[in-house]
């Protein structure tokens, strides 16, 4: 019998930790003295290794259930109910494997903090700069989407009580303040609040569209039945943009490197992953199916506006904390990446020195400003979501993980190349190729969608005071 490879031993260590009865390792602040990424962790600085496995579940789910779930019913309208569910399940399976591969890769290479470190191992300095730049750009774009969603919520709750540009600025200021909390361990409680808030809001809308006579956008006179489609007939740009929106709903993947890096016991990562992905997928299928079934082509994007003015106010009011926490996380992630990249190897990363504080606020402030400009420049929610999902969400969630498996397993000797090895090679290559296709095709479809939205009379303009809660 062939001996197990080091990679297989690590994967085996992950699986028991996911389902066994082991208690989570209680690592106190004093016991953590050195980390491969953060260096010496002392009482004088932030404890970066303080996220438990339940907190990890909250962070994983909150990086995904937020903006993406609000566009799923509209994606089902484009693709049709059955193709929409099939695409969603396929994306869920591939991204879950990608997420699992992150855990395996991190335990095999403890010095890896973010996707750029993996890129450097596989492709050298070019890989580091490419993936690092893509990582920052991706999360900054998502932060822009988050600010846009907060402005929509504030407009809905206040009945357009102020200029939309003001609401976007308010979202930026609040996001900056909360994102400046230095560790994910201290943000975990916010993640739980935000997760329950967004779930209650979307299920409120789901129930409301089921009990109401018709959706808010449907004709209000005469008999009405839902015009939902079992199979849609979209053009290529429409179909690929819809698929990109679903990819975006699962594209929290690049954040999982940072999340596992701040876990107290990374061996429990898979347990958190299984719980998180199961909850996310059940939520997406339930909400997407029910809302689209009852609303048909009159579904709103974001979906919280599908059940009428009163329910929209209630839903957005409940969802506002969740949307705020999403924006907080997606500002925090690129800011933390930049901080670690700039201060890694120095005492200023893990100690509360003046240089540490100045660097940290500069990172969170810089990310916030760029995201604010993006949110004000592309104020079309569905178009921005599909563009981010296509251009960078797929690139961060598909191709690197296929390459990571090949990097750690390609060099097996001939005697160790079993049928499973050949199958995994095929699957890894498929993930890379399919991800590349979605990146190119989805970006094209999303750009076409954004251009079309500006041509329509209901489209909102850049840097506008117009009410975006009724026009997106």
Q: Could you write a compact summary of the structure shown?
A:
This protein has helices at 6-19, 53-64, 72-79, 81-108, 115-158, 164-179, 184-211, 236-249, 255-261, 269-295, 309-343, 354-377, 381-397, 399-409, 419-455; strands at 34-35, 39-40. By secondary structure, the protein is mostly helical. The protein has a single domain, classed as Amino acid/polyamine transporter I (Up-down Bundle).
Q: What would you note in describing this structure?
A:
With 472 residues, this protein is mainly α. It is built from 15 helices and two strands. It has helices at residues 6-19, 53-64, 72-79, 81-108, 115-158, 164-179, 184-211, 236-249, 255-261, 269-295, 309-343, 354-377, 381-397, 399-409, 419-455, and strands at residues 34-35, 39-40. A two-stranded antiparallel sheet has the order 1-2. Strand 1 and strand 2 form a beta hairpin. Helix 2 (53-64) packs antiparallel against helix 9, helix 3 runs antiparallel to helix 8 and helix 4 packs antiparallel against helix 10 (269-295).
The rough form would be described as: globular
DSSP, total strands:
2
CATH homologous superfamily annotation = Amino acid/polyamine transporter I
Count of the domains: 1
Termini separation comes to 60 Å
What class do helices, strands and sheet pairing give?
mainly alpha
Describe the biggest sheet?
2 strands, antiparallel
Give unreliable regions as ranges: 1-6, 8-13, 15-30
Q: Tell me, what is the CATH class?
A: Mainly Alpha
Count of runs of 4 or more consecutive helical residues: 15
CATH architecture: Up-down Bundle
Domain Amino acid transporter transmembrane: 50-446
Organism: Xylaria grammica
Family: Belongs to the amino acid/polyamine transporter 2 family.
Membrane topology: Multi-pass membrane protein
